[in-house]
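Problem: given the chain below (110 residues), write out its structure.
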Amino acid sequence: MEFEIAIRRKLPIVVVISNDLGWGMIRHSQELRMGHAIKEGTHIGRVDYHKLVEALGGKGMYVERPEDIHPAIEEAFASGMTTCINVMTDPAVISPGSVALASLGAYKAE
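Solution.
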C-alpha cells in the first residue's frame, strides 16, 4: 500500500515493475539450485498492478514492448503523479541476481 500513501501525499513517484508473472528471482534460483521451482510459491500469474494504482487515484501504465518503455517513463515523469509502469518481461530470462541467490546455498534439492 505504499502507492496509496504516495498518491494521498501527491508524491510524483514513478515505479517500474518488471512483471515476469511471479517471484522470478526466487523461481530461477530454485531452478538453478534444485533443478525445478516450487510453483505454488513462485508463480503468481498476471497481475494488473497498474490498474490497482489507477483505482487508488494514481497513474497506471501497461507496457508489453521494449520500445515502449522509454516513452512510458517520460510520460510518467511528465505527469507529476504517482505512477506504476507495469512492464511485462520474459519469465524465462534468468538475471545475474538469481544466479547469485542460487549460489548462496539456501535451497536443498528434494
